[in-house]
What does this fold into?
Amino acid sequence: GGPRLLYALNKSHGLASVTTINRHNKIPQLLPSIASPSAEDASTNITSFFNPEIKPPPSIPHGETLPGNVVIVDRVAINEKCQYCSRRNCILGLCREHADAVDLQVNSLESVEAVQKALDLPKDSPGHVCYGKDATVLAIAPYTRADHYTPVPIIVSPSCKSEKGDMLAKWLKIVVAAWQRHKYGECLNGPLWAIATDGESTFRLAKFLLYMTEQVAPDSDLGKILHPLLGLNCWTGEHGLVGTCDPKHIIKR
Ligand SMILES: [Zn+2]
It folds into this structure.
């Protein structure tokens, strides 16, 4: 996929080339996180992708509320190498777990060599950093709608897979809060209802820590329906958010 596929289709079927598309359309760029994903990272990407000029918000029929969204989290393979980010004048591609151990700003040749030195340090020694082995991608997709179905990424962050569930939970909470606060987030595109991951143990622990913290109030309208259902898990996280598995992973099991 991506630019290479478009290049092939441009040659074989005469589709518009990458340069032509770039000239006529503003294509939003996903900003990768340098260390642990922050509210600023999420906010920048929400601004790029959910700007109403780029992605018109869902229309709401009179009297109805905005549709809820699911946060989809999964890992994708990446090349284990560094890259220069001209937008932020820094080095990308190190894992979020260890990136804080070194200054990634490119201010001189020495600053680049310092990163190289930290990469060469033996594993588990202080100051060691590593390449991201894969990237965690967090995307937002609406429930129950066919017109705005496509998931939209708001975080991509390299990891060396040494992250524990509580560390993951910490930044997931920050990103969810950034969506709830952003002017193109919850108020324009709807609230978050669930967070879906595969069954990996880190994801499971994070979901347990975040989304099993409070019960649906038994005397609320919803609680009156749910609580009499024997065996139903009525625990949720803040704002009624629930942790779930994406259906593909349930079917695989
Ligand atoms: Zn690492």
